Amino acid sequence: MTGLWIALGVLVLLIFMAIGVYNGLVRARNETKNAWSQIDVQLKRRHDLIPNLVETAKGYMSHERETLEAVIQARNMALNANGPKEAGAAEAALGTALNGFFGLAENYPDLKANQNFLSLQEELTSTENKIGFARQAYNDAGTAYNNKRETFPGMMFAGGFEAADMFEIENAAERAVPKVSF
């Protein structure tokens, strides 16, 4: 009779352990989804700011249509991206287009002095910082989730749990250390 109670106790303990591991995987997956949503919020803000910035600059940079169109095209590609991997590549292209845009803006003193342009540029810079922090938080949550699903005992219950994609730099030029010379 005692052996039966011990076996029943071990079975109940294993059931509770399995429930705990499964619930931990669900929580980690949901935290990863939440972290992605935070990136999505900042990307939406970025995408909403860009048309206003371009419209403000159009009057000053009328003969720089190619650059303005490249920014809008990159923004549209970023809006249509799905998931972290695709969004990362599209956002990198958008960042490159914006860098070219701001480089050209340096040649237009009236534009640089325009209060709307300065305000939009400041908001975009702030949003870029928030995107960076949100990406870091996403990668942290995704790593914790992937660790739970790939280590024991989580791996025993992770059959229906897809691995989280990480935001990574795919463009080698972005990894390069900028050269500063005076």
Summarize the structure.
The chain is an all-alpha fold and 182 residues long.
DSSP strand tally:
0
Strand content: under 5%
The count of domains is 1
- CATH architecture descriptor name: Up-down Bundle
CATH homology superfamily: LemA-like domain
Order of helices and strands: HHHHHH
What does this structure look like?
By secondary structure, this protein is mainly alpha-helical. It contains 6 helices and no strands. The chain is 77% helix and 0% strand.
Secondary-structure map with pairings?
Layout: H1 2-58, H2 65-79, H3 83-105, H4 109-113, H5 115-150, H6 172-175
Helix pairs in contact: 1-2, 1-5, 2-3
Provide key terms for this protein.
6 helices; 182 residues; mainly alpha; rod-shaped; de novo design (two linked rop proteins)
